[in-house]
Amino acid sequence: MPDLRTHLNQRYRRLSAVWLKNAAAVIMLIVAAGRIIIQLGLIRLDTYTGETLSAAMDADPNLMTLSGVASIIQLMRGLLPPLFAFLLVEGFVHTSSYGHYLGGVAITAVLSEFAYDYAMTGKVLEFSAQNPMLGLAVCLVMLYGLRLAERREMIERVIISLLIILAATFWVIVIRSECGIELVLLTAVLYCFRDKLVIKYVLGIIISLFIFS
Fold first, then answer.
1. Is 177 helix (H, G, I), strand (E, B) or coil?
2. How many CA atoms within 13 Å lie on the side-chain side of 13?
3. Is residue 103 a contact partner of residue 109, using CB atoms and an 8 Å limit?
4. pLDDT tens-digit profile of 50-87?
5. Which pTM was predicted?
6. How far apart, in whole angstroms, are the C-alpha atoms of residue 45 and residue 126?
7. How far is residue 51's CA from residue 56's CA, in Å, rounded to a whole number?
8. Distances in Å between the alpha carbon of 164 and those of 13, 43, 56, 167, 197?
9. For residue 13, what are the CA distances in angstroms to 91, 111, 148?
């Protein structure tokens, strides 16, 4: 019975991970399509200011509808940091090769930057903001540091962990990774409190509320 229970738990965990990965991919696709097709293509949001957009929506019901759809899609974007953070921690905890995992995330981050810049700004390379995959790479390095800190005594471990989290926060701000701060905080909470479900979920919800605010 214990073997069957363990097998079912592992199977459920794998199915859940696959479902969450697919959900994250679909949401990313919807958000990207909303940004490129609706905001930049149909609405041409970059040509409006707040006041002129309000006046244009009052004059054009279709524009108001498109703006409403764009707002809903923008809200969906807030679901991505929690999903990314959860999947990153699960991948880090269960990976058999941290080096391969980090390399895969880092390479994907670099290669996707060109497409991200073109989709967001119409330029092949733009340094005003970077794609969230770069933030995930920083978070993965942070997780490795947090794992090393676990070998220390409690007080020293807490101090070192806080310094590592602050360093990761600093770097996502420097590289201007989209959702960078949220990713760092959520990843740190999900990892550091992975065995304390109540604390993990409460802190995760609080951070997520800031994302939507």
1. strand
2. 12
3. no
4. 677 777 777 777 777 777 777 787 777 778 888 889 88
5. 0.77
6. 18
7. 9
8. 29, 42, 47, 5, 22
9. 12, 30, 26
| Helix H or strand E encompassing 111 | helix 98-121
How far is it, in rounded angstroms, from Cα 50 to Cα 53?
Answer: 5
Determine the straight-line distance between the first and last CA of the chain, rounded to whole angstroms.
47
Rounded-to-integer distance, Cα 181 and Cα 211, Å? 10
Q: Find residue 130's DSSP bridge partners.
A: 177
Contact 76, 30 (CB under 8 A): yes
- Residue 144 to residue 140: CA distance in whole angstroms: 7
Q: Count the residues in the chain.
A: 213
Which residue shows structure tokens 């990153």?
Answer: 88
Least confident of 38-52, 105-119, 166-180: 38-52
- Is residue 172 within 8 Å of residue 178, measured between CB atoms? no
